[in-house]
Structure formats: structure tokens, C-alpha cells
Write a structure and sequence with these properties.
By secondary structure, the protein is of the alpha/beta class. It contains eight helices and ten strands. The protein has one domain (about 5-215): Aldolase class I (TIM Barrel, Alpha-Beta Barrel), CATH 3.20.20. The protein has helices spanning about 10-20, 40-50, 65-75, 90-95, 110-120, 150-155, 175-180, 200-215; strands spanning about 5, 25-30, 55-60, 80, 100-105, 130-135, 165, 185-190, 195, 200. The strands form two sheets. The chain has an eight-stranded parallel β-barrel. It has a two-stranded antiparallel sheet with strand order 9-10.
Amino acid sequence: MFRIKICGITTVEDALLAAEAGADAIGLNFYDKSPRYVTAARAKEICDALPAGVAKVGVFVNSLPKGIIATVNRVGLTAVQLHGDEGPDFLAALGKLPIIKAFRCKESTLDGVKAFLDLCGESTQPIAVLLDAHAPGNYGGTGQVLDWVGLARERNKLLGLPLILAGGLTPQNVARAISLAQPDAVDTASGVESAPGKKDPDKVRDFVAAAKTAWPV
């Protein structure tokens, strides 16, 4: 399981920047309405350039299972992140693929997340839960933050699954977010950009450094 994911990578240059800064995962967005969208061909080019040990997570929004599986095989993805309205049955349709299920939280309560996980069979549980901020009409990358203290209180509703915290994380607030929410990993896209889909080198390095100092050794 990775700890620091830089999402919305669109170029080989930014992927290598994230890896060199110390991130152990990148996110590649296959949602064609996103400003961070990449084609499978571009994603493969990016993945092929990465050093060993960096996880390659494909972000999908309401895609067809067949298309997701084809992209995973073509690109060489480590895991699939479902960031849309996919239900428990959808996870089962992806077979044995490692799946991260993202939830866009309107409130601090994780009752809805627990209900989803309860409906998943033991063999179709995701490998981790990602919590992002909810914004109408958007599937991530909104820059809005979550109630970190409230999420920490609700952590037991995740059934022991790793928590990946997203939602408005920046170099300035990631250490505090880790301290309060106590996630297993953090994920940022817009928080380390100079423009949508273009990473800022200083922000990426500062984010990774701040996150690494926030976790106990």
C-alpha cells in the first residue's frame, strides 16, 4: 500500500518529478471530462518511464468494466480507482483487480461508506477507501477539504480497510490533515499544480516532504 500519491499526472516529466520527490504512487485520470485526462497511449508512455516501486493507479469514472480491464492490461496499472457512482456489483465485475473505491463525502459521517462495504462480498472488498470532498457535478480535483476530525471519529466504519485521504490537500495543510484524520495515505492533484494537469515542482517536493514528516516513524 502506498502512502503518498500525486494524482492527475499528464506527462512523463511530471511523473518523474513525483517519483524523484519521494511519492510512491501516481494517479492517471481516464475520465475524458477531466482537465487531467490522459489517453491509454499517453498513460503507457508515462508508466513505462517510471522507476520500479512507484504504484500506477488508474482513475475511472463510470466506465465499463471491459474497458477498464483493457486499459489496465494495456497500460500496466497497479490498481484501479473507481471515482464515480459504481456500486458493489461493479467491483465484482472487475474480478481480482486491486480496487480503490473513492467516496465523495457530503458530511462527516461515513454511514454511507459502511453501507456500501457491507454490501460487498468478502471477495469483492476494495483494497482501500479514498475519501474526497463532494462538489455537485465534479468527480474529484475540487480543492475542497474534508472534516478531518470528524472522519477520524468515524474511522471504525471502514471495516479495517486502509484510508486514503484526498480533498484539498496542499503542502501547507497536509501535515495537519495527517495528524487529525490519521489516514494511511494521502492523495493530491490540484494542491500541487500551477495549472490543471501541470504540476509545480516546488509544490510537489514540499507536499511530499511535509507528508513524510507527519507520520510517526
